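Give me the fold.
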Amino acid sequence: MTVLVTGATGFIGSNLVRELLADGETVRVLARPASDRTALSGLHVELAEGDLRDAASLREALQGCREAYHAGAHYVFWPPDHRLTHQVNVLGTRAFLTAARETGVRRVVYTSSSGTIGLPKDGTPGNESTPVRVRDMQAGYKRSKYLAEQEALRANGNGLEVVIVNPTTPMGPWDVKPTPTGRIVVEVLRGRMSGYVDTGLNIVHVRDVARGHIQAMRRGKPGERYLLGNRNMSLLEICQSIARIAGCQPPRRRIPYLAALLYACAEETVTGRLLRRTPRVTVAEVKLSRKHMYFDSSRAVQELGLPQTPPEQAFADAITWCRAHGYA
């Protein structure tokens, strides 16, 4: 049986493809004609060229598939083109799920985000039942993932089973772009991270996230969400761990929130708008850092058998891969 994966050229998607191939699955990937396919180097997959904004290409790619993983998304904080983000993440998800039903797909695992999970006011970790309101979310990527998740929940039923997974902060190999979290590793390795802000993240090995997708396909309950994460760590702890493993210096100076926000504004103005390059940090990222993004993934561990590889191994694998591919 052929399994379709969208977003296969990305960080989570490419690791998911590797895990599926290791399980002996026949994998078809949906990729835009102009996409960078470095993350799929050396993998034996069927290629279906298409776009989440092209319904006909989605139906063609899904033909003959009984299972599909929808990991494709427009994951950027710069430039802040909310229209494209909405078209790909929200309308593209709706189109994909419609095409899945029309072509007889039985089951879909949709890759959402931990950003759609609420955070308790008392500072305890959030879980799948912690409420959140869309009006409390920033416009752009985070809000689009919440709206896309609602599309996935509505699509569940009438012959199509949809299971939702919410990865936290994955780290590990094949972060080609790299993602905003992958840039943390790169910046520490290059010695360019002069300071840190008071925030926290839930770190998980990207391979565990990929395996969590597969387990959700096999064991997840339709219409339910599963947080795919591991350990809650402050940003300082993350940077110190990366530096210790890599044998380099961690950032030592805590940057106040307002100073970080002003720096991000300057980066967007000079680097983004004048030089037309991606800023090192964006206003949206700094605003997200105001909260400690701590989560409880015990449900996925118990119900799906989500692996819990130590974050130190995720950092080590990310460092090895970055150095081998010229990122540092």
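The chain has a mean pLDDT of 95.
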